[in-house]
Structure prediction request, 1481 residues.
Amino acid sequence: MKNKFINILAIVLLIAITSCQKKLDVNPAQSIDEKNALNTSSGVLTALNGAYSNLGNSSLYGGDIFLYQDLLGDAGELRWNGTFAPLTQIYNKAIPKNNTFVTATWLQSYRVVNDVNNVLSALGVVDASVKDRVEGEAKFIRGSVYFDLVRSFAKAWNDGTPSTNLGVPIVLTPTRDITEANQVPRNKVSEVYDQVIKDLSDAEAKLPATNGFYATKYSAAAMLARVYLQKADYTNAAAAANRVIASGKYTLATTFAGVFPASSSSQVPNTSEDVFAMQVTTTSGVNDFYTFYSPSSRGDIDIKPAHLALYETGDARKAFFVTSGGSVYTARHNSRYANVRIIRLAEMYLIRAEANFRLVTAVGDTPLNDENRIRQRVGLTPLTAAELTLDKILKERKLELSFEGQTLNDIKRLQGTVAALPWNSPKLVFPIPDREIIANPNLVQNEGY
Amino acid sequence: MRKPKLLLLMGLVMSIQLLQAQTTVTGKVVDSKDGTPIAGASIKAKGSNIGTTTGIDGIFKLNVSNTSKTLIISAIGYGEQEVAVSENVSVSMAPSDKSLSEVVVVGYGTKIKRDITGSISKIGAKEIGNTPVTSFENAIQGKAAGVFIEQQNGKLGQGIKVRVRGSASVTAGNEPFYVVDGVPVITSDLSSNGATTSPLADINPNDIESIDILKDASAAAIYGSRASNGVVLITTKKGKVGKTKIDFGYFTGTQKPTNRVEFMNAEEYVNYFRQAAIGAAKQDFKLGLYPTLAAATTAENTFVESRLNRYSAGNNDYQTYKVNTDWQDLAFQDAPISQYDLSLSGGNDRTTFYIAGQYLDQKGIIARNSLKRYSSRVNLENKVNSWLSAGINLSFVRTINKRVSNDNAFATPLQLVALSPITPTIDPRTGLTSGALDLATGLPNSNFPVYYNPMLSVENALYNTTINRTLGNVFGNVSLVKGLSFRTELGMDQLNQNEESYNGRLTRRNSGSTYGTGFNASNQVLSINTNNFFKYNMQFKSVHKLDATAGMSYQNYKNQGNSVSARDFPSDEFKKLASAATNTAYSSSETEYTFLGYFARANYSFNDKYLVALSGRYDASSRFGKNSRWGFFPAASVGWIASDEKFLSDIDWLSFLKLKASWGKTGNAEIGNFASRGLFSGDASYAGNPGTRATQIPNPDLKWETTASTDFGIEASVFRSRISIEADYYQRKTTDLLLNVPVPGTSGFSTQLRNVGKLQNKGYEITLNTVNINGKKFRWTSNINFSANRNKVTDLGGQVITGLNVAKEGEALGVFYAREFAGADPATGDAIYYKNTLLPDGKPDRTTTNDYNQAVDVVIGNPNPDFIYGFRNDFTYSGFELDVLLQGVHGNEIYAAGGQYMTASGSNGFDNQTRDQLAAWKNPGDITNVPEARLFYPNGVNNSSRYIYDGSYLRVKAVTLSYTLPSSITSKLRIDRAKFYVRGQNLFTVTDYPLWDPEVNADFSATNIVQGRDFYSVPQARTIVVGVNIGL
Prediction:
């Protein structure tokens, strides 16, 4: 019996040992290997969706990169009283080099750039019927992200010489390996703007006029209008804005409240006014304007009387606030599942009005008509031609787009001040994140850090 | 059954041969102290080769020739004795140095302590059992040299950090490898709420017979690729031959926080924030927000008064300090603890068994926290026949842990301390808990109190984790030929966890949902392991002893999980997701790994004096790429029992002296399961459409991290073993560190796992055991263990892992790296920092600046202790026993990360402040370390040495006073034994640390590198229990 037992044991062991060897090959169940991700048309399409998903991250188009502009650009119209120290630092214009929000935004931006570069590198396998659209969307995303990066991490276009000022590194190929070649230096501000315009123009050319809630031809044109305005290239700004308006694809919401449809429980679709918005559903996406501005959420931002005093009597926007426990909050971001509005039609009218007014042209329509479209929507009496001034248009722009992440970029463009700080103060430019300087010795830190 | 028959025949023949002129001696050998039988004692007739050994019952039978007059009786751990030959002999053996005969569990076997050449700490059942703690790691804290144990905080079942001889890795795991009865157990954290839990809390400490911690490479290398951080072998209790023993145990008591922190009262709070308004106004004016300082002051005063009014529940009671709430009181709760144990053990010469059950019912000191554990265990072994035995060790445990949020959540009860003392617990406007209802909206308040009131979660939320766990193995032992046997083990650890949480309507401000949110997650984890190995044991010519082990081991671990989050419930009565209207997140997951290893070990001793051990393991894991899948981990050690040499045997006072040295390599494979691959993950859906994204950059060259360890040790006992000492010096050098190397973010990735760099641990350990008084009635023994470890990252390939805790070349892992705080500028009240930039002469610039960016980071502290120690004294006097354990940690620093809010010069919001902030700068010329109070103008709250504190402590860890009834009474009561005791745990702590408790690491942030941080972390519990143990 013992011998038999031992023989059986030996056989069982032999089988066990040999079969164990094979068990060492275990494959991940939630991920796939890089090489299998981009080898089919549908694979590239899902990777493009992944790029949108990463773009919608809280630190980027989920809202933070715009929120920073409101906080860093504030001069006494709002009061930050939240507990996120990195945002307090931004609000106080005292940003340490290791500010974790700034670092997160930098990393997330380049994550999206890499996502998009992956898509663009695999265009060859994309079905011809969708190839242009895929390329256009990818370039729209890349152009937009570089635009926000260069505005946040480099000197303003109008501050000195853009062709010598340091911008941000331009990376146009996907990363497959990490080598010294990844230690990329900063490109110049003008180079980044050139890349932005190239990407957005390509996108406008390739994208369809309608594309669901994804980027369209006009999303790209609208972003271009913004870029040209930032460069004070008013001719191109007016033309781009006009292409959006003239497409007829978008209409102003009938009331100001209609711009910000509310629902606390489920997704709110884009309005007729949204030219591009990041989608937020109950299960994906995030709206950090809601997170920080809304009293239903953290309610970290009080609106001060100084801001409320700017509105004319009867302005529907003046009433678009909520009061709770002695604090005033904006009512624009009160929906948890509201899409993050990136560009809406009202901004295009305001860009066209400002550009036309400065150029004394009437591309599309007169500045007066554009201005009054915005005024009448909020219940204000239309201005007469005599009453219309550049300041009026700029003030309209400020009030219309308040708390939507435009504050600081407008101050820089218009060479204003942030209280005691001049528009070109180094304190109004983010530091290149410390971790990035350490990981990449070829990067040069910004002035003042 | 051919062979046994043959043996029988041979035996018969032999006995016939020996029949002539013989005496048959029968006898029993017992321990002189407690009368227990001594098994395996050797009996020899003096001057002959005839001998035998005692059986399990201590009984022997020996035929000696009539010429033999004397028997020599010896047993390991007992002094040798000679007795005269007679027909019936009763021998009572006095223990010599019992510790030397201790059986120590080593990988795939056991050894006598005397013969061990590696470094192993053993902790026995007596030191573990009946400790009023949840998990056994707490019970061994301070009891093993070189083993640093730190519980993150005082929440039940929470993660516990265990470091054996320091941290060997920067990115891979640093926890030891845990093995229960030969089976590797699941230790991975399965918590979904951001705070780690320890699956080791599912082990009933009272089931543990011994814990053997393999510390050096020679002891651990047989576990190869997983042994770098030490190996903890847990052996559960087994039955012993004899009468069935029934043991009943019960204890009950209360737990309280070890410490409280002083916060401002209502009057101090109100006045402080009025002061902060003035500070803020100065800054407003400086920034140009107001035309005059007076205008700024008016605006800030108005703002502060309106907020004080709000936090005072919308009235002006704050002006008279009428309400003065101590929120800290509410964070803690009465915390009873009770434990019931019942066990049966015994057996006959064929079958032994141990059957035990336990019920632990414990409340946490923090509100809402409780844990119940039901555990049962059956350990059985049967001798099938002379060459085969088989058995099973099996335990089933159910743990229900009612948890609280992680330390970083607004809902966590200790964040109550952030609320204003002027805020009433019950809002007089509604008669409800403050924050429960805003009369204006009919919903919970959105901005009153200052933060979400955690009491709303205490009252309206739950987070219950239920674990059902089956851990066990079956085994068989076959003796093949003389000296050679084979053992096979098949082990299983099955852990099913369900987490269920519900946040009721009143938690809206925190949960973000008006109609409640729910969450449910399940994990099914199964680890299967088989060990198959041969053991060979042989003695040649009485001087050569060889024992060897060789075999294989395979483990497969698979974790399948799913989770669903949803919201909008019909009412708080409905807590199951079946009633939720909207789902908000859903996921299922699966991950798996396998390990395959072949191992061998040989121990050789010559003359019982010269010891050599060799071991090696050839290991492979699915975690590594095909090209570097296998690793080889060898070890060698030597020992010399010098006291057995002639030239030392004459020294009377020296009872034992052993010198030993070891070298070996061990590995670390505790990284992600698919860390070497370039991955796209499918978790990137956008607006309802599926998406993928690149999540990991490949590294096809990824391989094992290796630690080479050297150990020199000495073991000695002197003065007839009254004093015994063990000392070890070790060096552990880790190379090919598995390191998450920061890469340029412009690549689209932030880190890549690479084999880069080196680190080392050096240290020494001393354990001293003394018998101070050994009277008939009074006995006093002491144990001191002391260990010092120096950790140093020697090479990171020029990288720095940044953060507040960093990994940096030339420094210990996790040192705090931040600006050096220089107090408040006497002229302005600004927080100032030493610049510490390097001057041309290479010295740091010691001038100060108020611009944080002008100063550079320097090492401001080290979370790793310089040394740790335990000091235990045990006094017995007739039936009384007093056991006192002091435990200490020295030379480490703690970063009070919550200081940015609670010790912040009132500059970071309306958080109530620690009282030390009353010393804030007020007027030019003030010399103070507390910068000016400036509401919402953070003044010195960025990471700096402002929040570094000495974390050294000395703790009266455990005091037990027990009384065992004398047998005269127990016999009348018809019981075997009865013991009553009172026990205190964490009774008293001596420390300079100003916050709650110096044994801390914030649960949401703890990693290899991030250590020694305190962030609203629940203090440890001070526990007092009374208990009884009755044996039938």
